[in-house]
Specification:
mainly alpha, cell membrane, Sec-independent protein translocase protein TatA, protein transmembrane transporter activity, membrane, protein transport
């Protein structure tokens, strides 16, 4: 049973408990803070993924030939 299966009654119960604990004036502020935190986390993960893509070397035809044991051709030397 995962979090995706709490259903509407469970969600309403959680919302009611949060309302009782924090009061109606604090809930929007808490929601904004949670949203900002999630956005920062998402941006950080996207930045890490972009760095990985930029640092990943591209295999060239010459690199593939060297791995396969073939000698580079004159056309490869011009590149």
């Amino acid at each position: 049973m995962g979090l995706g299966s709490i259903g509407l009654p469970g969600f309403l119960l959680i919302l009611l408990v949060a309302l009782l604990l924090f009061g109606p004036s604090k809930l929007p502020e808490l929601g904004r803070a949670a949203g900002r935190t999630l956005k920062e986390f998402k941006d950080s993960v996207a930045g890490i993924n972009d760095d990985d893509k930029q640092n990943k070397p591209e295999a060239t035809k010459q690199d593939v030939s060297a791995v396969q044991g073939e000698a580079p051709t004159a056309a490869d030397a011009k590149k």
